TrEMBL record:
Gene3D superfamilies, per the entry: Glycosidases
Molecular function via GO: (1,4)-alpha-D-glucan 1-alpha-D-glucosylmutase activity
Matches recorded under SUPFAM superfamilies: (Trans)glycosidases (SSF51445)
Record-given protein name: Malto-oligosyltrehalose synthase
Superkingdom of source: Bacteria
Any one biological process term the GO annotation gives: alpha-glucan catabolic process
Organism: Lentzea tibetensis
Length: 693
């Protein structure tokens, strides 16, 4: 497994469509097709994480026959299949869930779902606001708003339509995994392991059933590592994303964008714990013995809010638990701590661990990242906005560590979950090189078209610049989601209709102002070449650094997408295949708006993957040495330009990159490689060197 290419299967892009693009992917150099969930999902789903029947391939995508044909065609081309699986939850209603509602605790599936039966009925928060309760034998329909405070079944985050499974039970594991494991895929991507009762036990059971490559959708803190006891190959790559994107940000600009992220993050987590996840907090608090329920709720919420990572994995992760407890001062914290320590495998400790990740994710990623908008290129899944970029030394250290500890961990720059695509972030990184100019422009534009909520206003201008040109419709959809996720002036639960109307009207009003549009367009024109340089640099680094790189669908050309569903738009594979054909014929495209230069970098980088080994940092010498990131892996050397806006003013000034012994060729251009950077990087801002045999 040397590389993957992520494809989002939808009713508009089926298994048959996947077969049609395989020749293109093989020519691109892809090692395996990395598929979104392929089991039967809710009708019309564009992501597939809402599985309703884990015993068959999704009918809308072509069913088991279509899946089998896809796998056979992959094998025929020497390519693998990586399947995304969802062990934590299923979409409801589904046949198993319907049986539970019909028969209650006597249902053969009653133990499949994580339901608190103490009230005797399942609470279904599905009725319109203020509607009367409906009294059925085994369930009760209530106002949808009551779900966040009274729900009595575990769910995926705050989505009541996704009911959690008790996959820790062998019967449930078998029922939900037998079909997908029978496909004998080459790799498995495991979604949301932090929601499982015992992730380590789950992975050990999964490993017993398959020899496949296993990567986990685990978001690590900047200094956190996967538990050593998990028999997996690594993460899905958000840790690498932070490091690769961060090294292209000018850390000297931090003072222009500095703010108090930790306060914003703490307040956001606290809001989430006490509102949208109150039902989960309350269920845990009821397990704390000999403590008033209200005081127990306060203690549970406080410790979760103070977690330094998404969750601890007890008993391995005591240090993270201890840090959270030490930061908490509620009277009931001591009792909570003692009872968790007394039984780290018990229900209290288990449920706490399952829920802490929900508080952190909803509080940090889905709230704080939309509130703390000083420099949104840092606000990415797995990101650390309090750490302004990544130094070259830190990048080399972490890359070498990945090579030694998790050489088969996935690396990524864009996914179906990223807040903005890699090329948007690459362009926004340029703002750190011209912070004064950017701040002046933002202030000037805000004077004419400012949004009334300051953090949303900052987010709107940066999003506009990063994704430009963008339609009013796309920008309107994005700002609606961003404003409601931030939960400041409006939210999904408590709508502020007047504010929502202002946000809705903003894109059309702004784009109708030709003078401001002309200014914005001129500003984007100024930063675009440097953004292209960053895009090519981070892509080449990702594809050749330690790990197994993934290319998200369509991002082999420029892709200026924002958060889902914007990043699930159809991909024009005919255009990509045509451009690739020209590259295969010897065409060296300009670095321009077509994005063909990025396609060249992807194709050439994937072609040398099999030759990569080890990791050796390399350093340029001379007055512009800081503008280079370089490393050697076996007989391959990667060279990328950093901070290109500053470089455009100074030039390379006789700076050199001393090359290892031997003669080297740049496979991007076919030219002999030399140490002088002005010549080595004359055609492209990146170089990929191979030693002549």
């Amino acid at each position: 497994m040397h590389s993957t290419y992520r494809v989002q299967f939808t009713p508009g892009f089926t298994f048959h469509d996947g077969v049609r693009v395989l020749n293109y992917l093989r020519r691109l150099g892809v090692g395996a097709l990395y598929a979104s969930p392929m089991l039967d999902a809710r009708e019309g789903s564009t992501h597939g994480y809402d599985v309703v029947d884990p015993t068959r391939a999704r009918q809308e995508l072509g069913g088991d026959q279509g899946r089998a044909v896809l796998q056979e065609e992959l094998r025929r081309r020497g390519m693998g299949l990586v399947v995304d699986i969802v062990p934590n939850h299923m979409a409801v209603p589904n046949p198993w869930w319907d049986d539970v509602l019909a028969h209650g605790r006597k249902s053969q599936y009653a133990a499949f779902f994580d339901i608190d039966w103490s009230e005797g009925k399942v609470l279904l928060p599905v009725l319109p606001e203020d509607a009367a309760d409906e009294e059925h034998e085994h369930y009760r329909k209530v106002d949808w708003r009551r779900g966040n405070t009274e729900l009595n079944y575990r769910r995926f985050f705050d989505i009541t339509e996704l009911a959690a499974l008790r996959v820790e039970e062998q019967e449930v594991f078998d029922a939900t995994h037998d079909e997908v494991l029978s496909w004998q895929a080459d790799g498995l991507r495991v979604d949301h392991p932090d929601g499982l009762a015992d992730p380590g036990g789950y992975f050990r059971r999964l490993r017993e059933r398959t020899g496949a490559w296993i990567v986990v959708e685990k978001i690590l803190g900047p200094d956190e590592e996967l538990p050593q006891s998990w028999p997996v190959d690594g993460t899905t790559g958000y840790d690498a994303l932070r490091e690769i994107c961060g090294v292209f940000i000018d850390r000297a600009a931090e003072s222009y964008f500095r703010g108090d992220f930790h306060t914003v993050e703490h307040d956001s987590r606290e809001l989430v714990a006490n509102t949208i996840l109150a039902a989960e907090v309350g269920r845990i608090a009821r397990l704390v013995k000999d403590v008033d329920h209200t005081e127990a709720c306060v203690a549970v919420a406080e410790v979760m809010v103070n977690f330094p990572v998404y969750r601890s994995y007890l008993p391995e992760g005591w240090s993270h638990w201890e840090q959270a407890v030490a930061r908490s001062s509620s009277p009931a914290v001591r009792a909570l701590d003692e009872q968790v320590r007394a039984d780290p495998h018990g229900e209290l400790a288990t449920r706490f661990q399952q829920t802490s990740g929900m508080v952190v994710a909803k509080g940090t990623e889905d709230t704080a990242f939309y509130r703390y908008t000083n420099f949104v290129a840092l606000n990415e899944v797995g990101g650390a906005p309090d750490r302004f970029g990544v130094s070259v030394d830190e990048f080399h250290y972490r890359a070498a560590h990945r090579e030694s500890a998790f050489p088969r961990s996935m690396t990524t720059l864009s996914t179906h979950d990223t807040k903005r695509s890699e090329d948007v972030r690459a362009r926004l990184a340029v703002l750190a090189e011209i912070p004064e100019d950017y701040r002046a422009a933002e202030w000037r534009w805000s004077e004419k078209h400012g949004l009334p909520e300051p953090t949303l206003n900052e987010l709107a201008w940066q999003s506009l610049l990063g994704a430009w040109p963008i339609s009013a419709e796309r920008l309107e959809r994005y700002l609606e989601k961003a404003s409601r996720e931030a939960k400041i002036a409006t939210s999904w639960v408590d709508r502020n209709e007047r504010f929502d109307e202002v946000v809705q009207a903003w894109p059309v009003d702004l784009l109708a102002d030709s003078a401001v549009v002309q200014e914005i367009s001129a500003f984007v024109d100024r930063i675009t070449p440097a953004g292209w340089s960053n895009s090519l640099g981070q892509k080449l680094v990702q594809l050749t650094a330690p790990g197994v790189p993934d290319v998200y669908q369509g991002t082999e050309l420029w892709d200026f997408s924002l958060v889902d569903p914007d990043n699930r738009r159809p991909v024009d594979y005919e255009l990509r295949s045509e451009l690739l054909g020209r590259i295969e014929s010897g065409w060296l495209p300009e670095v321009d708006s077509t994005g063909a230069a990025k396609l060249l970098v992807v194709q050439r980088a994937l072609s040398v993957r099999a030759s990569l080994s080890g990791y050796r940092p390399m350093f340029a010498e001379g007055p512009s040495a800081a503008h280079v990131l370089a490393f050697q892996r076996g007989d391959v050397v990667t060279v990328a330009t950093r901070l290109p806006m500053g470089l455009s003013h100074s030039g390379w000034r006789d700076s050199v990159l001393p090359l290892p012994p031997g003669e080297w060729t740049d496979v991007l251009t076919g030219r002999p490689a030399v140490a002088e950077l002005s010549h080595l990087l004359e055609v492209y801002p990146v170089a990929l060197l191979t030693r002549n045999r």
